[in-house]
# Entry
Amino acid sequence: MPKSFSSEEQSEIRESLLNTGEDLFSTFGLKKTTVEELTESVGIAKGSFYKFFDSKEALYYEVYRREEKKMKGRVLMTLYGQEFSAAAFADFLLEAIKQIEKYPIMRRMYLENEYKQVIRKIPQSYLDEHTSEDISELTPLIRQWQESGQMIQRDPEIITSAIRGFFILVIHKDDIGEEYYDETVEFMAQCLAEGLVTEKETTHD
# Structure
């Protein structure tokens, strides 16, 4: 029978599992990392793991979400301190794609096809929550750009979905083809940015 833990112990163990998961998943990937390895590193019984996460994939997804938040914060900084324009927004989209390769779990999730393994094993509620968070994070920014006349007047949720759709390109790198992928991503970033950003015309006296 799994041991019971105090609230403080639960918090500490959950954090330890996230940190251990990040190390093991980054090094060995989802398939080659076992629940036994995760629990042994943290010092709990295998059965106790399921008091914290429904599955190994659920832990993986939480590690991925934590890494993604770090990436988002870094990438959003590229939009600050410069004039907002279609070119700047396209650069922001492309920088986000580049950053995926710099974060081990995100790289494995998208570029090494672990995405499909994960979503088959996690509840739909995880994905719904992820979508809701993306919408709540981007909506204030989108509304700010719309109010200043810098972005088209469309439902912010539709704009968020379009941006999310752009990043799905990463999962389909093999389908697009290695020789076309980079150019396709750049072209799609440019098209999306030009479709969303409204730039004021410069008047000449």
User: Anything to note?
Assistant: The radius of gyration is 20 Å. The chain has a mean pLDDT of 89. The first helix runs from residue 7 to 32. The CA atoms of residues 35 and 56 lie 6 Å apart.
